[in-house]
Amino acid sequence: MAEQSAPAIAGIHHISFTVRDIDASVSWYERVFRAQRLPMTFPHYGCEDTGYAVLLIEPNSGLAIGLHTNTGNSGDLFDEAQTGLDHIGFAVTSREELDAWAQWLDTLDIAHSGVRTVDEPTAFATLVFRDPDNIQLELFAPAG
């Protein structure tokens, strides 16, 4: 029997995070990514009675960022050492773009790793920072 190929994925449509303080998180994502909030809320799928989401659109890529709130949220900070999401990596085109992001985060007083260059297992550069819920966000540029 021939091995069957998996259906194709065309890209990432949206990312969604459950947050502790939806107003603070919306404000942060608007400020950092210049994301534009859609003027409505959406039911939190499977938790419609206890939560909702706000949707923001990042204007350069069109990426949708969903921020969810739920009454069942214990208020703990995110911890990538637990089962689930580790981090989100956003692609940028060059090392110069990473430098521009580092300067942008500095103007917003957002702590970050600084641009780091890695040569193994392949050459690339990254810039890491965290949102108000401690979710790690990474900007990634290929070497060259």
TrEMBL record:
This is VOC family protein. It comes from Mycolicibacterium rufum. One of its GO terms (molecular function) is metal ion binding. The keyword Hydrolase does not apply. Pfam families: Glyoxalase. Residues 11-142 form the VOC domain. The keyword Membrane does not apply. Keywords: Metal-binding. InterPro entries: Fosfomycin_Res_Enzymes, Glyas_Bleomycin-R_OHBP_Dase, Glyas_Fos-R_dOase_dom, VOC_core.
